[in-house]
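ok trying again, last paste got cut off:
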Amino acid sequence: MIFLFITKLQQLIFQFCWFILILFDFIYKIIKMKKKSTKKQINIFLNPLFYFFGIIILLICNISYESLLSKSLEIRVFSLAVLLFLLFALPFLSKRNFLKNADFSILKNPFMLIYSLWVSLHGISIFIAQNTEESLHEFLKTGSFFVFFIFLLLYIVPQKDSRTIFLKVMVLFTLLISVIGIVQALNLFSEHGFSFNNAKLIKGNFSNKNMFSQVLFFGFTFSAFSIYFLKNEWKKLAFITTLSSLLMIVLLMTRGVWLALFVASIISLIFFVIYIRKYIQKSHLSRKSVLVFSGVVLASIILLGVVSLQFDYGQKAKKRIENSFKLSDTSTLSRFMLWGETTKIIEENPVLGVGSGNWKVEILKYDVIRYRDGWIVPRRVHNDYLTILSETGFVGLIVYLTIFGFIIFYLISIMRKAEYPDDKVFALALFFATIGYMCFSFFSFPKERVEAQIFLNVIFAFSTFLYYQTKNKKNAQSSKSALPILLIIALGFSSVTVFSSWKRMQAEIAINEMYVNLSQNRSKATIYPLIKDIRSPFVSISPRNTPFLQLKAKFMYSLGENPEDVIKVYQDALKDSPYHVRTIIELANIYFDAGDLDNAMKYGEMAYEYSPSNEVVLLSLALFVEQLGQLDSSLYYLEKVSPSSLKSSYYQHITRVLKKKAIVLLDKETNQAMKVEIANLANANDGQSVRIIHNRSQNNNTSYEYEFMKEVQKQFEHNYPEYAKNYVSPLLIEYGVISNDTD
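nice, full thing came through this time. structure:
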């Protein structure tokens, strides 16, 4: 098996080296082109559009920062906002106002009204949301994407060669991320073996393999269509890039993207046959080229499948495909659970929802926080449609679907009515990407990711512009009166988004630094300045769905701050996320440590209301009521705990409570021999007998006290057979161990 793996690894390395040689050959041929061709190529690379798309796609969609909690999300929002601010500030800084040349009549398109309504709904959400900071940031992000779309529509897309340059940049981008993925795969597989668990670690410059796969979907789409549009070496490079991106998609095993590819291919093929096939010249799309491309793709997938089946990876892939139909996969079931709980939010807030960015706040009151060697807090629905429905209500979902309805209508109209075949084919590419995006939005959260929104708004801009080109524009008036208003809106959104993202990044960096400083046992004076002003009007919850103030309070308490100050910070944290169980139970424990049992019970019961199955909450409440002398209630909470993943302190807790309970039982018992057995069992084996009693109560669905008395009777009969014949303890009858008619 090891020899087989090494052999296959050598083949992969050979294929990778062949890929690099092809790339160098491509670059060499560009350099050695004839003078006329070279001049044309240089003009393309010196075109400002190339640098615009290069910055937007090659740079912003790849940028990340290791000091952030979320390495790529906020830094990309910040980078896009900075670029937009600079672009729209340029007319004020330069005598040449390039925007004056734009055709503003396109802004009268009804799609603009729907998109602006979508942004407005996010603005209204600020006044509805429990957490206004998250809602405000979502509003700013959505507004910035809208501004980005307007800039594309007015100035970028109408430029000559915008389509060609966009496609070339997409080919380069897809090549870059595919090579990064291939290198990561080779490193992981060569060191740890070819398995699915290792494949999950391949994520490129993105947050996880699913996001990586979704971006590869866009890259694959536009690279594949670039084979039709581009010429010479670019066509060859597009072919290689298409193949490598598709192989990476297969390797990453993201089922939502697989489904997107399948559905988009079927639907697009239908529209291709109906509207486009008869317009395509054989020289552009010959039967031979289609067969060669399809054959290579199919052979590569089969090869990968045959190789992978020899290892754990292939077996896991097969199992995941089977589980997709059986709906028995763990990740699928967990998502269904979240979807089910999300419907409760929708039922309570059907019209306008709970406010954008607030699903992660509201979902916490439905017992979704788990504790398994750490807190597991859900961050996303993994379904954009349910996210939109819960956060902006049915109104928001209708508007959102209408946006896509317009785009699909535009693209179908372009395929039907466009004058040039190239426009029809490009509309099909945009259509393919749109359908795919809508498919994997059912299982993921591309709405949150900057790179996905950049591609989506590029699609929106090209679709709207091409549709506008098919309309009769004789009566269209290019009014420039909207320019000042446009500039004010654009600068407003971009500048505030820059500041908002900057503050959010500062908060994330501060939390990371706190962890580092605490691990190195730094002094209080070093750590406290980091957490002093961690919260701002733009940020209150971390990317891990934890209130920043909860983290601040936790660190303050560990640093020995005044408990009253710590409690105040915890209470402020609950204003940001009122159902965050970890914040609530930590506050309850601080009250308990301070001797305030009333407030400890108040917040402990609040935590139990929102998370009645959380083991930390159950253990804390058991301790609280034990201190209040409510031993039956303490045992009630302990009986609900599944101790398989807990430390032995759990059994110590049960032992302590049962010992206290035994004292109560001893007062009720009249027989001295029975008293001895009760005392012996409560103190035996440092709680080992308690483990047996616990397991029996769990298996038999009986109470601890019943099993305890049952064990006492067993020992009593064994050690005092004469007493056992003549004496029945009233406690045995009280707890149902022996019925009243027993002799």
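cool. The CA atoms of residues 226 and 238 lie 6 Å apart. Strands lie at 370-371, 375-376.
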